[in-house]
Amino acid sequence: MSELFKPSAPQAALIDPFGRHVTYLRVSVTDRCDFRCSYCMSEHMTFLPKKDLLSLEELDRVCSAFVAKGVRKLRITGGEPLMRKNILWLFRALSRHLGSGALDEVTLTTNGSQLTKYAQELKDAGVRRINISLDTLEPGRFKAITRWGDLGQVMAGIDAADKAGLEIKLNAVALKGFNEDEFDALIAFAHGRGFDLTLIETMPMGDIDGDRTDQYLPLSIVRARLMDRFTLEDIPFRTGGPARYVRVRETGGRLGFITPMTHNFCESCNRVRLTCTGTLYMCLGQDDAADLRAPLRTSSDDTLLARAIDEAISRKPKGHDFIIDRRTKQPAVARHMSVTGG
Ligand code: SAM
Ligand code: SF4
Question: Coil, helix or strand for 219?
């Protein structure tokens, strides 16, 4: 591998037109995946040509340019990030910013399928916390929702991550008529193992094979139903993301709600998202984007890249316009979640 890019001296912070500080970069390192979750992708997805992808060194360089501009947290996501060849190289490279104190954390969102292989190496590379997606605890349902996934393999991955000492948060997308009878079981499982659990509303991103109105389950309803059986105490806990947390008094564990649909959290947004081809999306729910690959490849000096990042942040929109109803058949944005990362 070539010599790592050394960021220049810290530059002016990234502040958008609405006064929000951008301190969090999510990086989708591949759009490919070994699963085909029905709310995320169609079964026969067309993936980006491999030649368009940024190399791992280029991803490191863009991340480092953001770190030089005050980004404190990086999340590596996808597609399935652990399917990208040699991905541990990127984690090890980025860990130098943890060592220098420029970054607070490097985290990962994964479907868990490769964790038996990589959990210990991730821990050794400085990763402390990971998010693992788990929508159901029933093998048949798991197969149905992920199409190609295997629950046993993911459970083994969760065990491996736990054993390696990684702090685990489980993410479950709330799906009407699919897992709405399983939230108690997911809470019991997560909190019984000492993991946080976050429930997520489905977002209208990219064409899928079915109709999203059939899947959409507002978390306001889920929360009200949970309150029949549990005492949910609001707590100020935050992980830097959009989840709002409660403590479930009966289990002592934390439960998060990510509610882009029923409660828009854009006013406190501190995030931007980089795709594996070097496109920067300033909002998950808007199409406006900036190309960082051209300035990255035009010169080995980072002046153009830094300027392109500043220009992009000066266009960060106020928020998204997600709606899911019977009249709105088109997704709010055409790209799939696997392109921009969750
Ligand atoms: N493959 C990894 C995984 O599944 O965790 C990382 C990428 S995945 C796109 C990130 C998160 O986005 C997952 O928790 C997934 O459940 C969620 N997700 C995917 N499509 C979604 C959608 N349309 N609405 C809400 N969440 C979605
Ligand atoms: Fe793959 Fe994650 Fe999308 Fe499921 S949610 S298809 S695991 S990228």
Answer: helix
CATH code, residues 24-169+269-340: 3.20.20.70
Report the relative pairing of strands 279-281 and 271-274 from DSSP bridges: antiparallel
Residue 220, pLDDT > 60, answer: yes
Contact present, 284 and 332 (Cβ < 8 Å): no
The residue ranges of every structural domain in the chain are 24-169+269-340
Ligand 2 lined by 142 (C-beta under 6 Å)? no
Minimum-distance ligand 2 atom for the alpha carbon of 33: 1
- Mean pLDDT computed over every residue of the chain: 91
- Look at residues 91, 99, 31 and name the one whose alpha carbon lies nearest to residue 60: 91
Closest Cα to atom 14 of ligand 1: 133
- Tell how far the Cα of 252 is from the centroid of ligand 1, in angstroms: 26
Tell me the per-residue pLDDT of 277-333, one tens digit each, with 9 for 90 and over.
Answer: 999 999 888 888 999 999 999 999 999 999 999 999 999 988 876 666 555 556 666
Per the structure block, which two tokens stand in for 230? 């549990």
- Write the pLDDT tens digit of every residue in 29-77: 999 999 999 999 999 999 999 989 999 999 999 999 999 999 999 999 9
287 Cα to the center of ligand 2, angstroms? 21
The Å distance, Cα 123 to ligand 2 centre, comes to 22
Going by alpha carbons, the residue nearest to atom 4 of ligand 2 is 37
Which pLDDT score, from 0 to 100, does residue 2 have? 47
pTM: 0.92
Task: State the Cα angle at 258 between 221 and 316, rounded to 5°.
Answer: 130
Q: Coil, helix or strand for 155? A: helix
Distance 4 CA to ligand 2 centre (A): 30
